Amino acid sequence: xxxxxxxxxxxxxxxxxxxxxxxxxxxxxxxxxxxxxxxxxxxxxxxxxxxxxxxxxxxxxxxxxxxxxxxxxxxxxxxxxxxxxxxxxxxxxxxxxxxxxxxxxxxxxxxxxxxxxxxxxxxxxxxxxxxxxxxxxxxxxxxxxxxxxxxxxxxxxxxxxxxxxxxxxxxxxxxxxxxxxxxxxxxxxxxxxxxxxxxxxxxxxxxxxxxxxxxxxxxxxxxxxxxxxxxxxx
Length: 234
Fold this sequence. Notes:
Keywords: NAD, Oxidoreductase. By secondary structure, the protein is an alpha/beta fold.
């Protein structure tokens, strides 16, 4: 008997075709569904593939009488009720390396945009002004980047920042000494790291421990001109 797979969001055609090539699978793509639509159709499917837009709530999972797997094409699982899925024995999977390079490049883009005041300069230019001196910004060369979380994305950000000749330091209680040596990065606890940085980049999952990791107290010990980049997610 074939597994019926529901693809609820846009995916690359190559990936969809690979599923359809397998005789054991019957893959159907339905886009733009609200929760009510999903609840209505989910009982006939064995697997559900989503990205970040589809909300797999407790109500959806309770209606999923055949569902065995929820696959997230991406990293964050904050749009899936994992506890409800676990209670029903449904496996929830993500693709941790799927967006690593994109997220790292996006982070570097944000750092450069902040350093050169690109959003402000763009808005000013659209209003018919040419405030070159006001928005000239500063180089990132020689500046200190602090990275909180040296996992897949954090490590890739570090490599790219080193390519820009930034000084890279980090905070990660779980990383091994060997890995730190490989990356050639200074390791500090958060209290030591914050006063040193010109840019602070966050790359931690949104679990209970790092929730509210950076607040008023932490910001108060940072340099006045420091910038915070948060390209992490749940």
